[in-house]
């Protein structure tokens, strides 16, 4: 049975890109007689707000999307992430990182140009009593599991988690990071198909590695194109795209908005978009909100 999920972080209001992810995940489950789950990714206790959870629920109803089963909140599952973290620590793959935000920003803007990933400053430094997050020693982890791949729509992708560097698996203020929580939860909830934006494609390489280390099942991935505005620019909040709540309050018909997204309006032109049989096909160069 197909199981998909929509997994928003309640740190702000949803916009059209979230609506597209939710609709595609919902429709894939419905087309296959499967289940569509709602998971609230609220491990960030300082930025998550209950009022945003309430708005997410209203937004989904407005779009005409219903989910199956109880809403899962990551804040209620911290012990699971801690257990997974402990397992990785036992494997000797984690180290403490004491760097401050400023130090990391500094290290990543090296004289020879910005570097893409954390350069491993704290790997091998003596343990001390100071606030720290936990990072994975990516080279050691990759050496342990060997070559991995995942599917993105119909394509097979060779996983390259090394390019993401020694990512954080537990934050200074939480026993998990996005990467760890999402991997543990997709497995725990029996998610067979992860539908999410192309902006999370790189993260999937890390998730695939964690699945191998933690011996978890591997879902199929569907990284959909990102919405673009009439100017071809990515529709994101910084371009002043309206939130779903604002559209609702302005009296727009959410089901009509969903129908336009299903028809392909506003889809970008990234490889892999809309290629699955369960997803609507995508016109060549559509735009939204022109
Ligand atoms: N919580 C993530 C976000 O809102 C999405 C997680 C996912 O789909 O894997 O960006
Ligand atoms: Zn560090």
Keywords:
290 residues; alpha/beta; Rossmann fold; 2 domains; three-stranded parallel beta sheet; three-stranded antiparallel beta sheet; 9 helices; 12 strands; globular; binds glutamic acid; binds zinc ion
Question: What is this entry, summarized?
Answer:
With about 290 residues, the chain is α/β, with parallel strands linked by helices.
Describe the structure.
- This protein is of the alpha/beta class.
- It has two domains: 3-76 and 225-284, HUPs (Rossmann fold); 77-224, Rossmann fold.
- It is 34% helix and 16% strand.
- It has nine helices and twelve strands.
- The protein has helices spanning 16-31, 50-63, 78-90, 101-108, 138-145, 178-188, 201-214, 244-249, 254-262; strands at 3-6, 35-40, 72-73, 94-97, 109-110, 113-114, 133-136, 149-152, 155-158, 168-170, 193-197, 220-224.
- The strands form five sheets. A three-stranded parallel β-sheet has the order 1-2-3, with helices on one face.
- The protein is globular and about 60 Å long.
- Bound molecules: glutamic acid and zinc ion.
- Residues 7-9, 41, 182, 196, 200 line the site of glutamic acid.
- This is tRNA glutamyl-Q(34) synthetase GluQRS.
- It comes from Sphingomonas adhaesiva.
The overall average pLDDT, rounded, is: 89
Distance between the termini: 39 Å
Q: CATH topology of the largest domain, which one?
A: Rossmann fold
Point out poorly predicted stretches.
269-290
Portion in helices? 25-40%
Widest sheet: strand order? 1-2-3
Biggest beta sheet attributes: 3 strands, parallel
Order of helices and strands: EHEHEHEHEEEHEEEHEHEHH
CATH architecture of the largest domain: 3-Layer(aba) Sandwich
Percentage of β-strand residues: 15-25%
Q: What number of domains?
A: 2
- As a whole number of angstroms, the C-alpha radius of gyration is 20 Å
Helix-strand makeup class: alpha/beta
GO biological process, one term: glutamyl-tRNA aminoacylation
GO molecular function, one term: ATP binding
Keywords: Aminoacyl-tRNA synthetase, ATP-binding, Ligase, Metal-binding, Nucleotide-binding, Protein biosynthesis, Zinc
Family: Belongs to the class-I aminoacyl-tRNA synthetase family.
